[in-house]
Amino acid sequence: MKNILSKSLTILSLVVVLFSLVSCKPKKDDGKKLPELNIIDDKYRNWYEIFVYSFYDSNNDGYGDLNGVTMKLDYIKDMGFNGIWLMPIHPSPTYHKYDVKDYYNIDSIYGTLDDFNKLIEEAHKRDIKVIVDLVVNHSSSEHPYFKEAYEYIQKNKEVGGKYGDYYVFTKTPSTLGFTKVNGTDYYYESRFWSGMPDLNLDSENVRNEIVNIMKFWLTDCNADGFRLDAVTSYYTGNLPKNVEFLSWLNQEAKKIKPECYIVGEAWVGSDYEINRYYQSGIDSFFLFTGSQATGTIASAVKQQSGRQVGKLMVSLQDAYGEDAILAPFLGNHDTMRPGSFMPGIDNVKMAAGVMSMLNGGTFVYYGEEIGMISKDGSNSDPHKRIAMHWSNKSVYEGWCYSTPENIKIDNTYYYYPSVEEQLNDDQSILNYYKMAMRLRNAFPSIARGKVTDYSSDQSSYICVVTKEYLDEKITIVINLDSFEQQIVLDQSTLGFNSIVGELYATNEGSAVYDGNGNLTLPPYAIVILK
Fold first, then answer.
1. Is residue 348 packed enough to be buried (19+ CB in 10 Å), middle (13-18) or exposed (0-12)?
2. Strand-strand pairing, 284-285 and 499-504
3. Which of 99, 107, 198, 265 is catalytic?
4. What phi, psi does 313 have (nearest 5°)?
5. Are 213 and 225 in contact (CB under 8 A)?
6. Cβ-count burial of 462 within 10 angstroms (0-12 exposed, 13-18 middle, 19+ buried)?
7. Distance (Å, rounded) from C-alpha 145 to C-alpha 165?
8. At what angle do helices 345-356 and 429-442 cross, to 10 degrees?
9. Longest C-alpha distance within the chain, in Å?
10. Are 329 and 484 in contact (CB under 8 A)?
11. Distance from first CA to last CA of the chain, Å, rounded?
12. Distances (CA, A) of 437 to 46, 416, 431, 450, 463
């Protein structure tokens, strides 16, 4: 009975796939040319976040590795990403590797330093920058420095030795987040958990070590910058101290490599709070206010409010100023994936489309471009970090079958098709992301331009903004209605002649501009006029 049921489900699945391929057939070639690329070599990039563990396995051991990332560089470039953020790659006792045992090496399941150097070399050949996670709020409790400091206290009943000031030891813990040193009256600060002892960032020795670590990755290994983990926890509850430390770190990093890019994780609840961290001089901070199911991006799309998108663009400009390099994103390794929290394929696409029109450098979490969801809809870290879905085959080259915490998966845990299938479907989420990134690479004003909002002149479904950067001025029009919209634009005020870029979430026609201010927009459409 079980075999019969399995066969029946297989046949049913094939019918569903065949039906979807027919119903989502590519649009006919209408003779329109893709906008030409105009990529500027600066810090406004389309970043792709990779959890190496689950990305692509080059040696058939079940784990993703650095050589696997190198093998997929052409895919990454073809998708329009010109920056990669590698989540922690250092030796670590955990799958997530945010508890580092050795800051100067690569975890053996990921490969070697030679593999990293090869990845950097090949990425740079393709004009792709690579930044690595720099975790300096804490180390692993298995780091040799911590083990020696811990054992010294156990033996001598006092703090001392070569690494005694590398960590925060105390007899009077003031808050939660401290762990007892067994057999003594001492505790060590461990805000996240006992396996992650907090580093003493006031220690001159620790700061010198951090400088050496940055020199190693920026100079010896030629990385292009860092993503800074947990910057609000450097000095918990002490914003001025956090900003001071970030300012010091930024200055030291720029002494080593002036052009390096640094983006920080300041997970706080308002643009005002995030902006306070920009006072440190760090290039970017993630735009948490725009991310996740309740963020400003998803909310505008769900409410079908184009007018809200226009207000968002201006409010971000007002909150951060025109010079801040924002880092908008929808989801990452700590949050639910947009494929999980956006209802339906059109909304998944439109959330990506709206994000792609924002200023700054966008960040896309691996698999987001194919609508990957968390396994079982769970919000646990391992469930959000399952294997990249390259093929719908049950076993295939590159499959990362050794999943975090041994969470077993199969193709039933992927709601949308694989990369292999979506590449051949013009209406896929993948091809939508690809066009969105292309538009960002074709029109520098999208990421860098001064925003003026004209949305109040239209229905609530419509966003109309202009963006100006150097000698380029573009008009962006977004229709968040599930129906066609016909609008009138003041061509002389907005300063455009024709449609130069298009992004469609549905297959319900193309935008039409008659040259006299009348623009017809299909459902869920984004057009750029110039």
1. buried
2. unpaired
3. 265
4. -60, -40
5. no
6. buried
7. 10
8. 10
9. 84
10. no
11. 63
12. 7, 20, 10, 19, 20
Q: What does the alpha-carbon distance between residue 295 and residue 284 come to, in Å, rounded to a whole number?
A: 18
For residue range 343-389, list pLDDT tens digits in order: 999 999 999 999 999 999 999 999 999 999 988 878 889 999 999 99
Q: In the annotation, is 425 catalytic?
A: no
Above 70 in pLDDT, residue 65?
A: yes
Among candidate residues 450, 464, 455, the one with its CA nearest the CA of residue 528: 464
Cβ-proximal residues to 1 (8 Å cutoff; 6+ apart), any chain: none
With residue 213 as reference, give the H or E element that holds it: helix 204-215
Cβ(261)–Cβ(225) under 8 Å? yes
Asked whether residue 126 carries a pLDDT value surpassing 70, the answer given is: yes
Q: Can you tell me whether residue 384 is helix, strand or coil?
A: helix
Structure tokens at 310: 């226009």
Q: Which residue has the tokens 């563990």?
A: 53
**Can 209 be counted among the known catalytic residues?**
no
How far are the Cα atoms of 129, 218, 455, 494, 513 from residue 488, in angstroms, in the given order? Answer: 41, 51, 12, 12, 10
Catalytic residue among 57, 99, 133, 229: 229
Which amino acid appears at position 449 of this protein? Answer: G
Helix (H) or strand (E) holding 70: helix 66-71
Indicate the average pLDDT of the chain.
93
pLDDT at 289 over 80: yes
